[in-house]
Design goal:
single chain; alpha+beta; Peroxisomal Thiolase, Chain A, domain 1; OB fold (Dihydrolipoamide Acetyltransferase, E2P); 2 domains; five-stranded mixed beta sheet; 17 strands
C-alpha cells in the first residue's frame, strides 16, 4: 500500500518518507495501521500547483505514544486522554491561522483533519465547525492510518481532485497541532500525474503482519534467493537504479544494456537510454505458483517498450485475473525480496491508468 504525489508545493518545508504504524495484535488500534509514503517536489511560486498562504502550530508537553528502538510495536495512552489534551491546541492553532489568513474555517473549500487519535480528530472536526461538504475523507477504511505520512497522503489525494483557485486547510494532530493553508494555482490540472492512483489490493491481516516482521511465518518451501551482492550492484548502478538500456549503432534497443550488439555483433560504444519512464505493452504472461515469494503467485510478463526494447519482468499492483496480453504498463521501483536482512529493490511493471485502452481487438 504505497502512494506518491509528484506535485510542487511552494514554501512547504516538510516531506515524509515511508512510515508504518504497528500496534500490538491484541490492541484496539492493532488493525487500523497502514503503510504509505508521500513525496513533494519544491519550487518557486510561479511554478507551483499550490501555494501555502498561512501556517500555525501549537504544542504542549504530554505523553502521547512511544516506542523504544528495540521494540516492534507502538504503545499509546488511552484515547480519551488524547482527546482532552489535543483540543486546546486545536483551538489555539485555529485562532492563529485564521488571524494570519484573514479568513474563517468555514470559507475553506476543503479541510483535511487527521492525526494519531481517531477520537481526537473527530472532536477537532466538530470544534472547528467543519461541514461534511468541506471534510476530506481520511481513507482509514481503505488503507488505515499511515502515521507520519498520512497528512501528506491526504493532501496529495486532495490535489488530485481539486480545481484551480480552491483553498485547502490541512490539520494534523501529532505531538501538538499544526495547520497549513494552501491555495491551488492554474498549473494544477495541467501538472497532475498521468496515471490514477493504484487500485487497492486485498491483503490479509496475517500477510500484513508478516511483511512488517510482527508475525513470523514459515517461508515458501522453495530454494531461497541469493543475498544481493554489493559489487555487481555498484558496477550496474545505471541499470539497477535508473533502468537504463542501450542503443546500438543501428538503433536497436537492448534491455538489459549490452556492450556488443545482439543484431549486428558490432562492438561500437552503445548509447544509454532511460526506460524507467517509457510505457510498454505486455506480449506474454506466465503465472508462477511455485516461485519463492511471500505474496504468491508471481506474475511474470514479457513487455515491449515504446520505441524498442523487450524485457521479462514481474508484474505488480494487479492479479492473475486482471493481467492480460496487450495491457499497457509502466515501470516502478519495488522490493523484489529480502534475504539475510538485505532488501533487494529492482523494477517491476504495473498497469497504466488507461490500460483498459490496450492494443488488443
Amino acid at each position: 500500500m504505497v502512494a506518491k504525489a509528484g506535485v510542487t508545493l511552494a514554501s512547504l518545508k516538510a516531506s515524509c518518507p515511508a512510515s508504518t504504524r504497528t500496534a500490538s495484535i491484541t490492541a484496539d488500534r492493532g488493525g487500523d495501521g497502514g503503510d504509505a509514503a508521500a513525496a513533494f517536489v519544491f519550487g518557486p511560486d510561479a511554478d507551483s500547483v499550490a501555494v501555502e498562504f498561512a501556517r500555525a502550530t501549537a504544542t504542549a508537553e504530554f505523553m502521547d505514544r512511544w516506542r523504544l528502538p528495540s521494540e516492534t510495536v507502538v504503545s499509546a495512552w488511552e484515547d480519551r486522554f488524547g482527546e482532552h489534551a489535543y483540543q486546546p491546541l486545536v483551538v489555539a492553532a485555529a485562532s492563529e491561522l485564521t488571524r494570519q489568513a484573514g479568513v474563517t474555517i468555514d470559507t475553506f473549500d476543503r479541510v483535511i483533519v487527521t492525526g494519531l487519535h481517531n477520537r481526537a480528530t473527530r472532536t477537532a472536526t466538530r470544534n472547528l465547525g467543519v461541514t461534511p461538504a468541506q471534510l476530506v475523507a481520511d481513507l482509514a477504511g481503505e488503507i488505515g492510518n499511515t502515521g507520519a505520512a498520512h497528512p501528506w497522503l491526504l493532501l496529495a489525494r486532495t490535489l488530485d481532485t481539486a480545481e484551480p483557485g480552491e483553498t485547502i486547510l490541512l490539520v494534523h494532530l501529532a505531538d501538538g497541532c499544526i495547520m497549513r493553508a494552501f491555495r491551488t494555482t492554474p498549473h494544477l490540472t495541467a501538472r497532475r500525474p498521468r496515471r490514477a492512483p493504484s487500485a487497492t489490493l486485498d491483503v490479509s491481516y496475517a500477510d500484513a503482519l508478516t511483511w512488517r516482521n510482527v508475525l513470523e511465518r514459515e517461508p515458501p518451501r522453495r530454494p531461497r534467493p541469493d543475498v544481493p551482492a554489493a559489487p555487481p550492484a555498484l558496477r550496474a548502478g545505471d541499470w539497477k537504479f535508473g533502468f537504463y538500456g542501450s542503443v546500438d549503432d543501428v538503433g536497436n534497443v537492448h534491455v538489459p544494456p549490452a556492450r556488443v550488439s545482439l543484431h549486428t555483433r558490432s562492438a561500437a560504444p552503445p548509447e544509454p537510454v532511460r526506460l524507467a519512464d517509457t510505457p510498454a505493452t505486455i506480449v506474454n504472461i506466465t503465472v508462477d505458483r511455485l516461485a519463492y515469494s511471500m505474496s504468491p503467485p508471481v506474475i511474470v510478463a514479457i513487455v515491449d517498450f515504446d520505441g524498442g526494447g523487450r524485457y521479462q519482468c514481474t508484474l505488480t499492483d494487479t492479479t492473475p485475473d486482471e493481467a492480460r496480453i496487450g495491457q499497457r504498463v509502466e515501470m516502478t521501483f519495488r522490493n523484489l525480496y529480502t534475504q539475510d536482512g538485505v532488501h533487494n529493490y529492482f523494477w517491476k511493471a504495473r498497469p497504466l491508468a488507461d490500460s483498459a485502452a490496450d492494443t488488443t481487438t
